[in-house]
Amino acid sequence: MAVVLGWSGARSVAAEGKDDLLSDDTPASRPAVSGPASKPSAAAADDLLDDAPAKKPAPPATAPKATGPAGDDLLDDAGPKAVGPKTAPASPSVPAPPTPPVSAAPVKEDPHALLMRQQYPSAAQCAKCHGRIYDEWASSSHAYASISPMFHKFEQKINDLSQGTVGYFCMRCHGNVGTTLKETRDMPLWERSPVSTEGVTCITCHRVKTEYNKSNGQRRIEPGDIHDPVYGNTSGADVQKVVAHPDEWHVKPAADPKGPGMDIHREGIQFEQLSRSDYCVSCHQVAVYPGIKLEVVWDQYRASPAAAKGVTCQQCHMGTKPGIDSGYAQLPVAVVNGKATPDKPHHNHAFFGPGYPTAHPGLFPQNPRNTEFPAGTWLKFDYRAGWGRDEFEDKVAKNKLKIAFPKEWDNVDDRQTARDIITENQKRIEAKRELRRQVMENGSHIDGPFFQSSPAVGRALDFHYVVKNTNPGHNLPSGSLGAQPEIWLNAALVAPDGKTVWESGYVDGNGDMADIHSEDVGKGKIKFDDQLFNLQTKFLTTNVKGTDREMFLPINVDIDQLPFIRPAGLPISVLNHPPFIRMEAKSIPPLGSRNAAYRVPADAMKLPGTYKLAVRLRSRAEPIYFMRFCNATRDMEQSMNEWMIDLHPYTVQFEVK
Asked: Which strand (E) or helix (H) includes residue 629?
């Protein structure tokens, strides 16, 4: 007998009274509303964006208290105030995140391990000639894959639930090089080799010469030092021209003979699959042991209009415009010792997508300067409290602030150096935020509102919006399924007296939607949102007793003294899902659309005059309840909410008689 273990969240318990919904004091639950009477202009969008994207929901330490009717709050504060590096006041009482001690004692390295690592060059070595590509990649989700604290929390939780039987499965994609180097899956960052912490790094794709398809990340990286061949989408003729004239280019294509010159790979070999969509499938189409398809991008793409027209993943995710097949820029592939190779189609290695980082900004984006301090030391640097900033350090020097710094950060020069690095990294993160917004807005659209009848006092107001997926390649949203990602519609109505009389898509005190998984809904602090338009996919499971149940992390195990992940007992290729677990997909197919229908009750339409109706799509990678289930830190929760973005915000006005 098998049972599906998991955690499905709280059951909905509606709080009494409409005012509880509108006065929950939740920082992120309100869109600011104003604007012209017609379909949104730029000004209308700006009005709605009074709180976005600068003000993001940060989960409070305790549940918010009700403050009364919040119509004015809707206009003044649509989202929680972000407590980030730019806005956080100096807070010496904020403790640094706990981390294991970093030993200062030197450890003699095994020469075999050193030789092994030399066979897997770091991206930092490639950056000497491919600086532009390195800079694009450095803040990408590929570069983030093995650093992501949420990934590690999630991966550890699955291994805990399954008694370790998942093993290296997740690391095969997220830490391919580290897995090849036989690093244990639970090894902390400060013990891993530098190339391992680069996640999907240069050699992950450019040292592969065997075609793989649905292999769940099981691809072989060809070992070899920096001089060995690399594999790309071109013939390698430019490499041959450089290598043929080492003195002119000041390069050294071999370790011997010894002498001056920059180390360079001696050959570029064309690997045709690298230019095709099926190269991406190894990591972006994943079925876990029970047979659940955790990643379904390939399934969606191969049935899409984009695939039918021959548009590849690379054309939309590595072109000139995020998420749009817009061609490639013409740029040098390499700049060798200041001398550029001929222009070729440039594939942007930012890999445009909706993902974003929540890691400590001393660890990510990838930056050679990050290594000035060990990873464990970075995690003790309280970047939110202002350490290293001039105004902060002046107060410390004048004894206006008394702080017991960790011994690693007791030196003011170190703190200021660290702040310089973090400032540099945060500039790159902000560029990443803008690319994320563009790719999300380029792939979606909102039309409406469409009223079913003329608005009137004392009569229920029925209307709908049309949410469109303008992306021809895959669903909205796509990527990892189950608990993530989140895209939902937030709409709110403000009466002529300025009070909010109706809203759907509001969030609770943690920044979570008011669905059955919300902690505040379960505790009766806010009302269940029975009109919520949510595109987030969940799992439906059949348990030991009862009917189907919605969950966000099912683990199929045997009832035994030692639980283990139980493979499906019949061909899942026939069912397309394992017994007792299936996906509750709510995403919109490529170029498809869906109506978001709403009803404002008659008792909310009391006053004649001008009403304002605001709408926005909201997007976040992870719900906070799921992060807490995976034992995420407080800083991770705050970072996750700070990255919540609003898409296509606008306001319309209409008259009610």
From this structure: helix 624-629
